[in-house]
Amino acid sequence: MNARLPEFQQFQYAFARHIRDPRRAPRPAGVPARRMQIYNELLFNNFTGFLDACFPVCQAVLGPARWQRLLRACFRDWSCATPWFREIPREFIDYLLSEQCRQPLPRWFAELAHYEWVELAVDVMEVTMPDASPDGDLMAGRPVLNPTLMNLAYQWPVHRIGLDCRPRKPQPTCLLVFRDDEDAVQFSASNPATSRLLALLQTGHLSGRAACLQLAAEMHHPVPEALIPHGQAILADLRRQGIISGTRHE
Fold first, then answer.
1. What whole-number distance in Å separates Cα of residue 211 and Cα of residue 229?
2. From CA 113, how far away is CA 221, in angstroms rounded?
3. pTM (predicted TM-score)
4. CA gap 106, 137 in Å, rounded
């Protein structure tokens, strides 16, 4: 601590250090132990409450003791960049991906945490629904994607991980997460081709047919036109699910 700081600031730093790490940082002089304990429990329990609610599978696969150690280490070592409570789960993921996280965790744990966080992120996402023709021609027109869509790619099958499934080898996985017309969060399994097709459409510049042909070129398909019927079926299914809202008004 900088001894040249005003005394009240020195007290604030000492108070914060003790709250972060009550085992190793001494309690500030003049603060009764019982009152300090109330602050310690209140702040840590508020912090962990948001993470317990957002990451039930992460909590289950680690077990209570390891989960609490991980949360205590995050609370102690990580400096959140936002004051918003609902951003605490996102900060937790940043911690898991940082060098400051030195806890022994499964190789797939950070991706599993991200997958669990996505449900919250999509649920609270503030978007403006696009002006689109719901029954427009998806091949001739330019498809409009659901603005809540998160087009995800993982190295592990995160949607299957749980107490009965702890993969030992990576298994690349593509998933789509979005809000439907009733504002319910939906999950849909995908594949690399569909994921890339959606990425091409995300620009808003390509018709469905042009996107399918570009995908065929990227795949070095010998007969690009042969992929058109398959692409048309995929786009129709994506619209049925609510992942595609329609086509842009020209």
1. 13
2. 36
3. 0.89
4. 46
